[in-house]
Amino acid sequence: MGSTIQAIRGTRDILPEEVGYWQKVEATAREILGKAAYREIRTPIFEQTSLFERGIGEATDIVGKEMYSFKDRGDRSITLRPEGTAGAVRSYIENKLHALGGVQRLWYTGPMFRYERPQAGRQRQFHQIGVEVLGSGDPRADVEVIAIATDLLQSLGLQNLHLDINSVGDREDKQRYRQVLVDYLTPYKEELDPDSQDRLTRNPLRILDSKDQRTIEIAENAPRMWDYLSPESGRHFAQVQQMLTELGISYQLNHRLVRGLDYYTHTAFEIISDNLGAQATVCGGGRYDGLVKELGGPETPAVGWAIGLERLIVLLQQLDSTTPQANLDFYLVSRGTDAEANSLILAQKLRHSGFSVELDLSGSAFSKQFKRADKSGATACLILGDEEAANQTVQLKILATGAQQSLSQTALLATAAELLQRG
Ligand code: ATP
Ligand code: MG
User: Fold this and answer.
1) Does 237 share its domain with 308?
2) Ligand 2 centre and the CA of 228: distance in Å?
3) C-beta separation of 125 from 111 below 8 A
């Protein structure tokens, strides 16, 4: 016998017992996104490496050290997608979705890949659900996407979440502020953590979201980005805040919130949970007006977010430790040659009539099959012996009450809905 093979470090199986949580999140998201006229897009899991280098930025953690990149057999550099925005924007440009005119509201879900140190809330294959609104620079679009994220999290019953927002302004505001920040930080250079020292020249804004205690203290007193916005950018930010207030969505300003990706402009936001420990950000997003052009498309303002599904599901499990289960109508047991032959036919007929049926395939003693019926969670157990098969009848037992009756299979098919309700 060969040695057993295990899943790759940083990946996890989602087993049937757990998948109910995932399906609940997906169903809730579909409903909420559908109501706001977002349409699903499915893009490939891998893309040319250059898409992410250009679309996420060389100076980010993702491109700098987290990408799963490899050469394929044709010597092309391929990368497993680390996030969903770059692929969605590539597709938007390639398929000329901009030519349809108006605003494109897209959403996606699926696995993402980042070479990170696996730990609670951090995997190498993880899942996101995300939205992208392409073609609107209106602050209402920023607020719409935030409101949808809030609705989704609320519909799932999650509590102790808070929304942080900031504005990084447009490209020029960012440039201007960058210099202000470098001037402020340079005298502290020796006190910054090594990563931040390195970022002082490459990507100084990222120093603001360092996790190092001393760097945080220094960053806390840094000049505020929102004090350096142009009047126009300042107006955008003010409108976003006003509309959030009008919608009753509470938020706090966080001047250290810059987010990892280079292409963000104006609004940046995160939704953070108090119940998750160190990896507490459930949703991250913002406006990225420069990206579509950067990737070769027409100048197109855009805004979006991504929710980390593993972290969301941890929160759901904290709320309710019983997995949502699909309910089963019938558990069908049978014994004897004729009965077993009949069981498959009856199961199919019931399924075609809209009922769910689990067929016991064991052929073991009825007593053992009954035990499994009890555990199955079915509303009713159907029992077929050779006598029933010969008469085309079946025994029906409502599992909650133990009430049992014999009836013809035709009657069962005709009245199954009522019979189950009576249970
Ligand atoms: P972090 O600061 O936690 O590294 P990030 O800025 O890299 O987050 P984003 O790229 O904004 O994260 O991704 C959005 C969300 O996806 C995160 O808020 C998180 O919920 C989830 N996420 C990101 N990376 C991972 C990972 N390696 N494992 C699990 N979830 C992740
Ligand atoms: Mg990260």
Assistant:
1) yes
2) 27
3) yes
Q: Which of 281, 305, 309, 310 to mutate to test the pocket of ligand 1 (most atoms within 8 A of CB)?
A: 281
Residue at token pair 């090594």: 194
Domain around 384: 330-422
| pLDDT level of residue 5 (50, 70, 90 thresholds) | very high
User: What is the CA angle 63-64-68, rounded to 5?
Assistant: 55
**How many whole angstroms separate alpha carbon 296 and alpha carbon 100?**
17
Q: Are residues 377 and 403 in contact, defined by beta-carbon separation less than 8 angstroms?
A: no
245 alpha carbon – ligand 1 mean position (Å) = 27
Distance 61 CA to ligand 2 centre (A): 7
> For residue 348, is it within any domain?
yes
Order of strands across the sheet that contains 378-384: 357-359, 328-334, 378-384, 393-398, 404-408
pLDDT band with cut points at 50, 70 and 90 for residue 320:
confident
Would 44 be classed as within a structural domain?
A: yes
As a whole number, mean pLDDT of residues 47-69 equals: 92
Tally the domains of the chain: 2
Residue 314, amino acid: V
Residue 274 lies in a domain: yes
**308 CA distance to ligand 1 middle (Å):** 6
Are 374 and 323 within 8 A, CB to CB? no
- CATH number, residue 397: 3.40.50.800
* Span from the CA of 122 to the centroid of ligand 2 (angstroms): 8
Give the binding-site residues of ligand 1, using a 6 Å CB cut-off.
Answer: 83, 114, 116, 121-123, 126, 128, 259-260, 279, 281-282, 284, 306, 308, 310-311
Total-model pTM: 0.93
- For residue 306, which ligand has an atom nearest its CA? 1
User: Could you identify the atom of ligand 1 that is nearest to the CA of residue 283?
Assistant: 18
What is the pLDDT, as a whole number, of residue 422? 56
CATH of the domain at 144: 3.30.930.10
